Amino acid sequence: MRPIVGAAVTCLSITALVQSAYAQDTEGSGEVTLEEIVVTAQKREERLQDVPISISVLTGDKLDSSSDRGVVDALNRVPSVFAPVTNQGGRSGGNASIAIRGVSASTVGTGTTGYYLDGTPFGRAQSSFVPDSNPYDLDRVEVLRGPQGTLYGASALNGVVRVLTRNPDFQDFEFKARGSLSTTDHGSESYSGDAAFNVPLIQDKLAVRVVLGQQELGGWIDKPFKEDANDTEKSSARVKLAAKLTDSFSLGVSGWFSRTDIGAPPFSADGGRTSVSTVDESGNTDFDSYSLDLGYDTSVVAIKSTTSYLDYTQNNNFDFSPIPLPGNFLGNVQVVRSGSTVFTEELVLNSVGEGPWRWTLGSMYRDAQDDSDQGDGRPLGRDVYHNESKSFAVFGELTRAFADGRYEVTGGLRYFRDKVRNWEDSRSGNPPDGIPSGGLLSPEDTFKKTTPRFVVTWHPSDDATLYASYSKGFRSGLIQGFPIIQSYPTLQAADPDTLTNYELGAKASTLGGRLNFDGAVYYIDWSDVQQSVTLFTASGPTPAFVNGDSASGLGVDLAVTYAPIESLTLGLNVGWNDLTFDSDVLESSGSVLYPKGSRRSNSPETTAGASVDYAIPLGGSGYRGRLSVSANYVAEQITGYSQTSAALVTADSVTLVRTGFTVEAPKHWTATLYVDNATNEEGIQPDTFAAQYDVVIRPRTYGVQLEYRY
User: Fold this and answer.
1) Distance from the CA of 55 to the CA of which of 258, 269, 376, 534 falls in 20 to 30 A?
2) Nearest-angstrom CA–CA distance, 650 and 704
3) Do the strands 623-634 and 637-642 form a parallel or antiparallel pair, or are they unpaired?
4) What are phi and psi of 447, to 5 degrees?
């Protein structure tokens, strides 16, 4: 009863604030000073204030001046977002699995949050991990909360993250750079440098933008044979070429290349200082992303085609010593080589003009393949297998405006079809059923889904929006692995899971633009939740994919920014959800994995953040000083079910504090002194198998950063 009352109070408060903004506007105060942000969350350019979706935007200028070394760092400061470096993705230097509003993939199947690098969807065939991209010289990062199945498809079960880079400028040459030096408690020094160039090649017709980055991140975990063993080297390059061929026809070509090498994963069993592993656990994660954008605008319709190709590889050496393996000749090391190639084509048509009708039509084709080759050094072979997904979708949305745009009604629909298959070339352990010559091919399966969206929007003023929405998101189904197929031939593939969201939200600017807020109250009904259970096969304990019952719950998002005076800005955000299982989740033996009322793995109930930014003049020469302090809280969460202890494993809550002082010159230069993780939180994410694999966050770090803009 208490959560329902709290949600109702929040809803009434939001409505009251919208009415206040409306009253202020009708009085003609004319004092609105809110900086206008334009987003493309609905496949067209719109003011953030007008979009009936719960959205947070991280601007490129803020990311450039921050000490964030990856987009994942920044995402963890967004309301209702939790992006932990997992004990699987973390082996290669910072891959993460993103959860929004408590909806987590929990390492089962594809992600519950769509992740885009510009127009390239970073969605593998059967994996939820995404890379920790370089955040320098981005235009913005858009975080869409709630299902986005109509416009973004199967990967957007409960949200989308869009990492959008800056476009080339046809007019002006630009150069900017930044460099930093930092040191970590009980660890090594870190160095980083980034630079961006914009060059107009043909005035108003052709331009190129190049971004380069290099990071040498010192480690802080000691191994028996090496101090600060978990060091990381990251390098990245982006090239973006834009051409305006005619007044109506535009072309864009881009490439994003990233290389990450680590000395060891961030694992420790003693609070984050040492690792007992005595073997080489180095690894790397690389990706190359290519995109071709074609745009043609007429007075009636705007047409855009986006063709993209992603090549992703990951290589790991993993210490397997907690499991005694007879005949192991390679020092208990499991060597994993995996990769993905993803080709996508999306065609979108948007209406043009100021009439009462707006519409979007589109289609999408995607061809993705995952490849994995792993072994533990035993002489009986390796596991070599492949997953393939070929999907197609058509979608559309239609909006009708009334009363000069004060009221809008939107309806959308997406049809999706996914054909999947697996095949296996070899299997370690030489099970009795064996692998036929030429490999083993699984039965093909096809998954289909149609998802709707319906929104009613009210704009009481130019600076206020109130909306009520109903939307659905989904994930494609999962085919069983080969040991399961052979040992349990009647066990079917896991069906798609579906998430239905009912939401009431508001966003407004009031008090002359000094108070801005974005809030939403929602109810989630997640059905046929995909989960993994352990079954015994000829190859040993093996995960099988099944559909559980359902999970549901209320939730609230709220973000407020207040500037009581020109030099002071205060920020506060809270995300809370009560998403829990509606019935017991059982293991194959019938034992309870997750009791009714418990939460899914990597699903914190509460996230919260607060920030203070205060600027002061430094003398009369035009220099300014800026003091910033922020704190972000993530509640405790379950990290999984431990087979060894037969119990749920829980991570403690974490509060990360950042402070910084910046000196801004009148032109070109800024310098910042900063402290990350100022309270030295350990931030341990316990592993479900052994404490040796507990993931820890970087300890307190002191640094200085210099920026230059020409």
Assistant:
1) 258
2) 35
3) unpaired
4) -120, 135
Domain residue limits at 293: 2-709
Q: Which pTM value belongs to this model? A: 0.90
Structure tokens at 335: 């060597």
Q: What are the E-state strand segments in 166-223? A: 174-184, 189-202, 206-217
| Domain count across the chain | 1
Angle at 426 between CA 420 and CA 431, to 5 degrees: 110
| DSSP character at residue 169 | P
CA distance 336 to 440: 20
Return the CATH number at 683: 2.40.170.20
The H or E element containing residue 500 is strand 497-510
Backbone torsions φ then ψ of 675, nearest 5 degrees? -130, 120
Note whether 410 and 455 are within 8 A (CB). yes
* Nearest Cα to Cα of residue 462 among 42, 16, 47: 47
What is the token pair recorded at 591?
């034992």
Q: Determine the pLDDT at residue 499.
A: 95
Taken in order 610, 616, 622, 623, the sign of the CA dihedral is negative
Measured CA to CA, the distance from residue 567 to residue 449 in angstroms comes to 51
Torsion of CA 164, 165, 167, 173, to 10 degrees: 150
* Non-local CB neighbours of 214 within 8 Å, separated by 6+ positions: 192, 193, 194, 234, 235
3-state secondary structure at position 18:
helix
- Let me know the angle formed at the C-alpha of 616 by 613 and 622, rounded to the nearest 5 degrees: 130
Cβ–Cβ < 8 Å for 609, 77: yes
Please name the residue that has the structure tokens 């370089």: 134
pLDDT in tens, 658-701: 999 999 999 999 999 999 999 999 888 877 767 777 888 899 99
Distance, in Å, from the CA atom of 198 to the CA atom of 647, rounded to the nearest integer, reads 55
